[in-house]
Amino acid sequence: MAECIHGFDEGLCDVCYPRTPAPAPAPVARVRAARSTTTRGPRAGTTTRAAGTPSAPATLRLAGRRVHHVTHLRTLESIALDGELRADAVPDVDVSSATTRELRASATVPDGRSVASFVAFHLAQDSTRWEELRHGALGTHWSHAARAARPTDFVIISVPVDALGGDVVFVDSDAGGVAARFAAGVEAGTQALRRLHAVDPDFRDAELLAAGPVSLDAVAVVTVANDRVRDEVRALFDTAGRPAPRIAVYPPAFAND
Questions:
Q1: Which residue positions are annotated as catalytic (predicted)?
Q2: Is 69 annotated as a binding residue?
Q3: Are strands 247-249 and 221-224 parallel, antiparallel or unpaired?
Q4: Could you tell me the pTM of the whole model?
Q5: Which residues are identified as catalytic?
């Protein structure tokens, strides 16, 4: 095969054999759709919502849900002896800081009762506070005892909302915070829960306060980190002379990595 003066095979040199540019494509005519002159408003009886705002599912309500209370194993032993969760009980291992307790004692629900007079539950099993606690308990919410504890030292007590009675208060965030909003009762709490769904569909900061005391007979399940803790929970209920609730071993709920 012949070569050009630049050493390339015939036809492969862009200098000696310049390529003919391809013809430009014919312009495509654009047709603009006629703009409608009719303006339509919302259909009567409907409620408009901001674009992209997720709507709460029709099944979203407090009734039928379970709420969750995290406690230390040593405190669970006292709960088993009492047979109930009480807001005025002194925990054997107090994981809350003095600042947290002071804020919750001074915060009030709509009828004037102190937040601290209620047994507190979270709507999400993986709540923000539980995540903080099992990742080292850093920050002003937590005590030195909380920072010294391991995730496996805790259990999660889950109770159906229906077993708490009607004297409950829904809180859309930390009940001791200045921005917290309260809704008393299951029905008002459900409406507040549906509104919260638009900004926090996982409800990781929401609380449900129960007037209490909450009987252990109302507990649906106690979730623990491993088989050893399960056996320990069974033993402490035996010592207390009462049957243990159903115990579920679920390590992912206690992971801190």
A1: 104, 207
A2: yes
A3: parallel
A4: 0.79
A5: 104, 207
